[in-house]
Description:
Structural class: mainly alpha
Radius of gyration: 32 Å
Order of helices and strands: HH
Number of strands: 0
Number of helices: 2
Helix content: over 70%
Number of domains: 1
Distance between the termini: 73 Å
Amino acid sequence: MNKDQVSGKFDQATGKVKEKIGEAAGNQRLANKGLTDQIRGAAKETWGNAKDVAHQNAEENRREAERDANASRERVANKVQDMKERVNERIDQHRKSA
Length: 98
């Protein structure tokens, strides 16, 4: 959970309290301020959720790129090893025929 998500949840909770107190006291201004705080909090929390998903996607993309790089290195290493073995076999054939 990131700071925007936490801050958004806090704003929503305090906004709800302000709204209820305002309604109970007949103070429309306080009730409206509470609703405004809830809306702001919901927006912050949503922004935090979006940032969290973007971070998770970036991390998964990094891990996938790392896996791809590792696989590519392994393929190249295997090809080099295969070529080395084939060349050594040819060298051995020439030694035997000479």
